[in-house]
Known about the structure:
- This protein is of the alpha/beta class.
- It is about 35% helix and about 30% strand.
- It is built from 11 helices and 14 strands.
- The chain has a 6-stranded mixed β-sheet with strand order 6-7-8-3-9-10, sandwiched between helices. A 4-stranded antiparallel β-sheet has the order 2-1-4-5, covered by helices on one side.
- The longest helix has 16 residues, at about 170-185.
- The chain is elongated.
Amino acid sequence: MNTVVKIENLVKRYGDLIALDHLCLDIYEGEVFGLLGPNGSGKTTTINCLLSLLSYDKGSIQIFGKEMTPVSYDIKKDIGIIMQNVAVFDELTVFENIDYFCGLYITDKAKRKQYVEEAIEFTGLNDFKKFYPKKLSGGLLRRLNIACGIAHKPKLIILDEPTVAVDPQSRNKILEGIQELNRNGTTIIYTSHYMEEIEQICTRIAIMDKGRKIAEGTKDQLKRMIKNTETITTELLELPDNVLSQISALPHVYSADYSGDKLTVCCSGGKHNLIRVLDVLQKNDLSFGRVYTELPTLNDVFLEITGTALRDKED
């Protein structure tokens, strides 16, 4: 498996603040690699160092097997960048914006025109080619931003929070587009603090906090790192203490709580936890309403590893 990005012991300081604390990452060809973490965790700093837009105090960065420097133009021509803040020219139309950014890498006019048309088609901007950015909705503006970053057909695409403040329809369109780019062979680095996006599209994930990588793996590997493998919730009007004790004593149950007419049972391992819980309730002649079971999410992983839910840590 070819390594596209290799980061070793990266350290970045701002005075006494350590923004990146000996960060190590390996990103392989054909991956959608997710960087997950709250605002301030170091995701954007990592990207800026990766692109040599920001100097760092210690460590090394290689892309496509070569050391990345501010003048590594041979490397940069194969990288596409879509940052959180939309970066287009208000004075240029949709077509002209994409053509300009593509022209930074593709000098052949016929080839560039073909690439621009393909980027417009890919992002669904055919009906808006002559529009100026100020006339576009937030979602369409995000699509234009993406089209400008991918038009030159880079081998590596970096997307830093590309769906912030867009409507659900545009968000789905963007995520589907990212997956299609990956199916066509592009390696993608995707940063976000939206758990559901990372879980939906990423093949491998690194969780960052306070400039450190605190966990890494596929979503299933990350979920296996934590104690909670299943949460069972049952609605019932009453639950005697002795029955709650029986449920707490069941195999694989490490937490059972009854409050607000809801029984919440947290399990670690086991395949028949729901059946056992319902069996205890039935044996004690307790009627119950809605029952549902939930598998762990990446937010559960983050909560257990860091002690804080991700959304609680957003700015």
